[in-house]
Amino acid sequence: MAASQTSSAPSYTSALTTFLSSIEEFAGSLSQLEKEIPADQVPVHGDRWHQQVLAAFEKSQAACREFETTEGITQPQVLEAQKLFRDRTGHWMEQSWIAHRSRTKPSGFAGDYEMLLKLYEEATPACGLGGYIDLCILDLPLARAVRARMASVRSFLLTELGRRDGDAPVRILDIASGPCREFLQWPAARSQRVEVVALDNDPQAIDYVSQHVKPQLPDSTTMSMNRYNALRTRSAENTIRHFGKFDVIYSVGLCDYLTDEHLVGLLHGWGETLNEQGVLYIAFKDTEQYDQTPYQWHLDWFFYQRTLQDVLRLYEQAGFNVHAMDTVRDATQIIVNFVARKVPGAIVRLDSAEAQPRRRRAPGTAGTKVQSSTASSEGATEAS
Ligand SMILES: C[S@@+](CC[C@H](N)C(=O)[O-])C[C@H]1O[C@@H](n2cnc3c(N)ncnc32)[C@H](O)[C@@H]1O
């Protein structure tokens, strides 16, 4: 903590002292629990060990939050403290399957399809202390929001299909499709044909969907899985050349990892890839509705923090008439789904979103805050 030691702010120094002792207290609790909980114990929701692990986890979150909100603390000081916290707690926290995966990021970023599967299935392969930490993480508001978000998109897709008729198949583009859980137990339509084109750059996600999701689809629905970098879809011309135009385009779980600059180009490109009467459905987390502390401190899992208004500004910059858009929250209120329909006046055509002046925010304000270790989407190559 070199920067902290040279800081002269008394409130910072005392906050740091308090915080360091809270880390030791958390480490002490975890160490004690590690001794008490048999290593092969399958975690049981609500038992006394779950309650004790949860109490320690929540107390630690409160300490991290208090430190982070200390008046005058700088972003580098927070990042430095987060690293120290994770180093000191690594031995215990990384016994959790989820914390280990989010801290080590084997796919390059925390929210990969295997992580999503664990959140959807509310299951952990970990036993002992790590299994109990996983139970606590699976109950965090954002983990519940991920499940609610999937339920919302499934319901949206089914409602949308119900609104459409005609002989031509309804074409759906799923961008950053992950495990495609929304298509499990997908109902057969009597006469409607549905063509799903799913894009993801993780070959393992594609294999999973090919093996577990695609084979159980009814005959009326076809699905093609494609390894494709979502960032390439900012060019509508490219997407249309490869995959055609779509009646429904959606993306869930990707945009919170992307910069404003990427998003403006992508939203514009997605609008241009819609058929007439098409609809665009994009999910974002509302920073005002959840606490980032356990993700950023305990898991090393960062998202761009945006309010609903921040996202609407991006749509405006991408050429959308935001007054003609709907915003629909999921059951937890944390996720906002932005729905834009391609009807006259709803999506204003621009020659190029790139030509629009872009407002950049000062570092540290909503919509720009990021931890470099998270945003693999931004580092993904155009070639994939
Ligand atoms: C949080 S998961 C969401 C998956 C799925 N949409 C869902 O909600 O269950 C994010 C997905 O985005 C994919 N992804 C990340 N960056 C990508 C990129 N640049 N191009 C394509 N897929 C990407 C990951 O492989 C992962 O499957």
UniProtKB/TrEMBL annotation:
Residues 372-384 have a biased composition (Low complexity). CDD domains: AdoMet_MTases. Residues 354-384 are annotated as: Disordered. InterPro entries: SAM-dependent_MTases_sf (IPR029063). It comes from the Bacteria. This is Methyltransferase domain-containing protein. SUPFAM superfamilies: S-adenosyl-L-methionine-dependent methyltransferases.
